[in-house]
Amino acid sequence: VQLQASGGGLVQAGGSLRLSCAASGRDFSNINMGWFRLAPGKEREYVAVVSWSGGSRFYADSVKGRFTISRDNNNDTIYLQMNELRPGDTATYYCAAGSTIAAMTSKSQANYWGKGTLVTVSS
User: Fold this and answer.
1) Where does residue 2 rank: exposed (0-12), middle (13-18), buried (19+ CB within 10 A)?
2) Which terminus in the chain has less CB density within 10 A, N or C?
3) Cα 115 to Cα 121: distance, rounded to the nearest angstrom
4) Strand positions, DSSP E, 1-86
5) How far apart are CA 75 and CA 64, in angstroms?
């Protein structure tokens, strides 16, 4: 099972980035998936989660209204569109899959984790 995240980079505050995560090794169309982030000196935090069908989406308060999660089950890929980026969004972003919505949003738990992609927002 592999989750490959991409799309990170350096952007100025107020700018946008789009992260992608391609899944392989099993059928991900029936499991929940999400994005999490880890900043230096902080604990891992959930950013956004999308249900297996794509019909339900959940966001951390810190990104609500600025970030949008989506998924394409035909291609086993999820996305995170990040707008109005702030220096506080600087972190390594990880794609993850598998687990209940509650576990992912309240405990940042998942069964599968990909390698992260670094997002740096300059002021």
Assistant:
1) exposed
2) C
3) 20
4) 2-6, 9-12, 17-24, 33-38, 45-50, 57-59, 67-72, 77-82
5) 26
Does residue 104 sit in helix, strand or coil? Answer: helix
b/e per residue 14-34 (b: at least 16 CB within 10 A): eeebebbbbbeeeebbebbbb
Digitized pLDDT (tens) for each residue of the chain, 123 residues in all: 799 999 999 999 999 999 999 999 888 888 999 999 999 999 999 999 999 999 999 999 999 999 999 999 999 999 999 999 999 999 999 999 988 999 999 999 999 999 999 999 999
